[in-house]
Structures are given as structure tokens and as C-alpha cells.
Design a protein that fits this description.
single chain; 482 residues; mainly alpha; 2 strands
């Protein structure tokens, strides 16, 4: 029996090593290819993730201990996720009642002199791509949760995101110092005055840098607790945080900087209110908040310049886009179709959004764009489902050691706030990195919950054994609580 148990543990450990490292490396490499925001790159990412999921499922069938967290634990978030996929599929089919189809199909058919099949979506072919990407994101969250149940895997995720964030930041800083004229192997065609690293859009890079900063701050908090100011882990995490913070500010993204600051302050608050080692945690909270403020004073002149009245006035164009997106939501209660925003938005575009803005294919607000594509009820269900996962971590944080859950809360706040102003979550590399942190954080919560639920039984067993031993003079063994 013991040999069989040892074999299962060994095979589980081997399967974790075999699958975890390719999974982690795949997610960390996603930003290297323009944020994986090209059809070739996001398709390759989806294929690799699907292959890893199949391998994991096969290993789980052979080893029942490979899946430490039952899928039902994700039910409040998984249910709206799969409903959204089902609804996106239904929007793209032609066999629904004619009264539900977009009237544009009938008008186009009349103009062409032939009958068009039609659907709710104006671009049904885009739904397939959107569903593929959604399934990829769900795969990342699920696998990160399963791997994140392991303490070793959680730490590897944090160090991996922190190290990757620092490397991408250093690359961006080197390009910046060299004149900021290229992105990867290509001449830079946008944002010549902003650091964008391997991304095209400065706001997207700022979101990614903020995720790396959340990971480093969680490591700083953990390193502080374990080894103090002179601990190796603390110093290494602090070293990684410096280039990320500098690159974030050199990106000159107002929304990115504000979102990162809010996330850092939230993390600092969670650390400060924890009942464990309150003084040390309060000191960390002050240092975390001071980190980005100090960086702002040193390299944030360009960002501060964008906060002047003339810079704020340029934000009005984005507000008009939001108003037009709200009109599209009201005009399409069933949604315009997943991925179809660029196709139906021109019909609602305000004349005040002049030709200087060019073709608008993003709402610059993920919530509004998703509501316009899937409808308000489905979008609200998705947001509430994800919010439930974050609330679980916020509630559990005071009982946990600083680590993955702390980073996941900060990362979730970061993307939630920045999604009000931009479309970072529409970039695959950003979304998979966030979900990697989120899954690892949930893994820490589940691991802690499992230990808490098991400890009363163990304590009760220990006390019953101790009572028996006290009544047996022939036995000298002492039972201990574990």
C-alpha cells in the first residue's frame, strides 16, 4: 500500500514537472511576439495551450491525484463563461428565426438581388476566432489553478512573471536609449515618444508592466517576511521591480500608470491590515506605495506632461467613442456578435468623432465593447463570475502568507481599472499573463482551504488517540497534533 502511494506521488510530481514548465514558458513568451496580437501568433498560442490541456487531461485520467482542485470549485465563473461561448456561437448561425437576425443582412441581400442567410452577428466568421481565444483563456486559468495548488509551482509563477517582466522592460529601455526607433525587428510605426517594449501600443505595454510589478511586489512582501531587508529573495525581487517600474513610467500611459498605482495601493492595504507581523507589513505598504512615486519623480516627466490640461482635453475623443458604443448597445440588445465591433460600430459613430480618428475597431473600454458584442446580461454575468474569484482571494488574503493570491488581487484590480480606459484584455499576452497570476492565486486559496478543512479532523484524531494512551499504562507513545 505504501509503495503504491509513493508511486502515485512520484508520478504526479513527474507529470507536474513535465507539463508545468512548458505551460509557464509558453505564457511567459507570449509577449515576445507583439503581445501575440496577430492571427498567426494567437492561433499558435491557442494550439499549444489546447495540446497542453489534452496532455494534462490524459495524465489526470491515469493519475487521480493530478487534479487537486475539482472543476466545480470554478462553477460560479465557469457557468457564465460557457454560456457566453454558447451565446457567441448562437449569434453566428443562420438557422435562427428571421426576426432575430440583423436587418442589415436583408438590406444587403435586397441590394445584391439575392438572399443572404444572415445571423445576429454582422461578422459571423469572427465568432470562431473569438471563441478560440476565450477557450484559450479558460485553459490558462484552469491549468494555472491546478498547478498553483503546489507551493513550488506558485513561487515559480511569481518569479517567472517577475523575471519576464524585468527582461521585457530592460529590452524596452535599451531600445529607448538607442533612439526608440524599432519594435522587435521592425521599424517603429507608432508612439515614437513612448516605450512600448515588444508591444505596439504603449497602453498595452503599461498594462503588462503593471502585471509584472504586481508579481515583484508580492515577492518583495514575501522576501521581507522570510529574510528581512537583507534577505536574498527580497533584494532580488526589488532589483526586478526597478526596471519594470521605470519602463512603466517611460511608456507615458496615463491609464496604465493610474491603474498600476491603484493596484499597488490596494496590495499595500491588504498587506497592512493583515493581523500577522503588522508593523513589518505596514512598513512594506509604505515602501510599495513609495516605489512608483519615486520612479514618477525620476523618469516620469513625460507622463506628467500628458496630465496637463491640453493632454486631458485630448481624452474627449475617447469619451465620444464611449457614447457611440453606448448607442450601439442600446440599438442591439442581443449584441452585435463576438468580434464584430468594427463592423457594426460605424453605424453608431458620432459625427463628432471626426476622420482624424481613422477607423475605430476598439471601444477603448473593454466592458462597453463586450456589452456591444455579447449584450449586457451576458457581459454582466462574465464580470460577476470573475469578480467572485477575486473576492474569494481578497477575503482569504488576511489568513495567507504574502504570495500568489496577493499578486493576483493586485493584477485583477489593475486590469479591471485599466479596462475602463483601454483594451489591454483584448491583447492575448496580457490576458494569459493575468489569468496565470489569477489561477496561481486561486491555487493558494484552495491549498489553504484544504489544509484548514483537514486540520480539525487531524486534531480530533490526535486527541482521541491521546485519551486512549492516557488510559493505557502499557503504552508510552505520545500522540501529537499536526
Amino acid at each position: 500500500m505504501n509503495d503504491k502511494l509513493a508511486w502515485r506521488r512520484a508520478s504526479r510530481s513527474e507529470a507536474h514537472r513535465f507539463l508545468f514548465w512548458p505551460f509557464l514558458i509558453l505564457v511567459l513568451l507570449a509577449p515576445a511576439a507583439l503581445g501575440a496580437n496577430r492571427p498567426l501568433f494567437w492561433s499558435a498560442l491557442a494550439f499549444a495551450l489546447g495540446l497542453l490541456l489534452l496532455l494534462w487531461a490524459y495524465a489526470a485520467l491515469r493519475n487521480s491525484g493530478l487534479a487537486p482542485v475539482p472543476f466545480i470549485r470554478l462553477a460560479p465563473a465557469a457557468l457564465p463563461f460557457f454560456l457566453a461561448i454558447a451565446w457567441a456561437s448562437l449569434q453566428s448561425v443562420s438557422w435562427i428565426p428571421e426576426t432575430l437576425k440583423d436587418p442589415t443582412w436583408h438590406e444587403a441581400g435586397a441590394a445584391l438581388g439575392r438572399n443572404l442567410p444572415g445571423s445576429i452577428s454582422l461578422a459571423p466568421e469572427e465568432a470562431g476566432t473569438g471563441i478560440m481565444r476565450l477557450l484559450s483563456y479558460g485553459t490558462v486559468l484552469f491549468l494555472a489553478l491546478q498547478f498553483g495548488y503546489s507551493t513550488h509551482c506558485r513561487r515559480s509563477v511569481l518569479w517567472g512573471v517577475a523575471a519576464a517582466g524585468a527582461l521585457y522592460a530592460l529590452y524596452g529601455i535599451l531600445v529607448w536609449l538607442d533612439g526608440n526607433t524599432s519594435v522587435l525587428w521592425m521599424a517603429k510605426w507608432a508612439y515614437p515618444d513612448s516605450l512600448t517594449s515588444t508591444f505596439v501600443n504603449r497602453n498595452n505595454y503599461a498594462t503588462y508592466a503593471g502585471l509584472g510589478l504586481c508579481a515583484t511586489l508580492a515577492l518583495i512582501a514575501r522576501g521581507w517576511k522570510e529574510g528581512g531587508l537583507r534577505g536574498n529573495a527580497f533584494m532580488l525581487a526589488l532589483t526586478l521591480a526597478v526596471p519594470i517600474a521605470a519602463a512603466l513610467l517611460l511608456a507615458r500611459s496615463r491609464g496604465g500608470a493610474i491603474s498600476a498605482l491603484i493596484a499597488i495601493l490596494a496590495m499595500a492595504l491588504l498587506v497592512a491590515i493583515s493581523p500577522k507581523a503588522r508593523i513589518a507589513r505596514a512598513a512594506f505598504a509604505c515602501c510599495a506605495a513609495a516605489l512608483i512615486l519615486a520612479g514618477l519623480a525620476v523618469v516620469g516627466a513625460g507622463l506628467i506632461g500628458r496630465l496637463d490640461p491640453s493632454g486631458i482635453e485630448q481624452f474627449g475623443g475617447r469619451v465620444r467613442i464611449w457614447v457611440s458604443a453606448i448607442s450601439a448597445i442600446g440599438g442591439r440588445p442581443l449584441g452585435g456578435g463576438l468580434g464584430a465591433f468594427p463592423y457594426f460600430f460605424p453605424g453608431y459613430r458620432d459625427a463628432a468623432v471626426g476622420p482624424e480618428f481613422g477607423m475605430i475597431d476598439k471601444a477603448h473600454n473593454t466592458y462597453l465593447e463586450l456589452a456591444a458584442e455579447l449584450g449586457v446580461p451576458m457581459t454582466a454575468a462574465l464580470v460577476i463570475g470573475l469578480g467572485w474569484l477575486v473576492v474569494r482571494m481578497v477575503r482569504a488574503n488576511p489568513r495567507l502568507e504574502p504570495g500568489a493570491a496577493l499578486a493576483a488581487v493586485g493584477a485583477s484590480i489593475l486590469v479591471a481599472v485599466h479596462s475602463l480606459f483601454d483594451f489591454g484584455l483584448e491583447i492575448p499576452a496580457i490576458t494569459v499573463t493575468w489569468l496565470l497570476l489569477l489561477g496561481a492565486g486561486l491555487g493558494q486559496v484552495e491549498h489553504h482551504s484544504g489544509r484548514r478543512s483537514a486540520s480539525p479532523h487531524r486534531r480530533g484524531t490526535g486527541h482521541r488517540v491521546a485519551a486512549r494512551l492516557r488510559g493505557s499504562p502499557k503504552l508510552s507513545v505520545v500522540a501529537k497534533d499536526h
